From TrEMBL:
This is Antibiotic biosynthesis monooxygenase. The keyword Oxidoreductase applies. PANTHER family: ABM DOMAIN-CONTAINING PROTEIN, BLL5343 PROTEIN. It comes from Streptomyces cellostaticus. Signal peptide: none annotated. The keyword Cell membrane does not apply. Keywords: Monooxygenase, Oxidoreductase. InterPro entries: Dimeric_a/b-barrel, Jasmonate_Hydroxylase-like. GO terms for molecular function: monooxygenase activity.
Length: 126
């Protein structure tokens, strides 16, 4: 009998990420594109999860999507009903502290684009 390694089957299915649904326009998209440094060990993952939880409490927040390329480009898009929600997020003390740590430790570069969404629709296979 051969010795083959079999990957364990998880008893709990891992959810597949899905795009944020389309909303009734107009609303706003904040696009954050970045390249990280190679210093991942000093709290980045914890901070990213904390900020993701925190932004959900901002009035006007609609949802977020993110993707990472094998080459190191990361893009996160946060959707807000209005500019007031974006401003509240921009001024949040924990977010401000994380931005500072990001500049000092985690990012080689980043860019932020804020766009008004004029049209939105989606498709889901049934």
């Amino acid at each position: 009998m051969s010795e083959q390694s079999v990957a364990p089957v998880s008893p709990v299915p891992v959810p597949v990420p899905t795009p944020t649904p389309a909303f009734e326009p107009p609303y706003y998209a904040v696009v954050f594109a970045s390249n990280r440094t190679d210093r991942d060990t000093d709290g980045y993952t914890h901070t990213a999860h904390r900020l993701s939880d925190l932004v959900r409490g901002i009035p006007g927040f609609l949802g977020e999507d993110s993707a990472h390329t094998p080459g190191g480009l990361a893009i996160s898009v946060a959707y807000f009903r209005d500019l007031a929600g974006i401003e509240a997020w921009r001024r949040d003390p924990e977010h401000l502290a994380a931005k500072q740590r990001g500049r000092e430790r985690w990012y080689e570069q980043y860019v932020i684009h804020i766009a008004r969404v004029e049209h939105s629709h989606g498709f889901t296979r049934t």
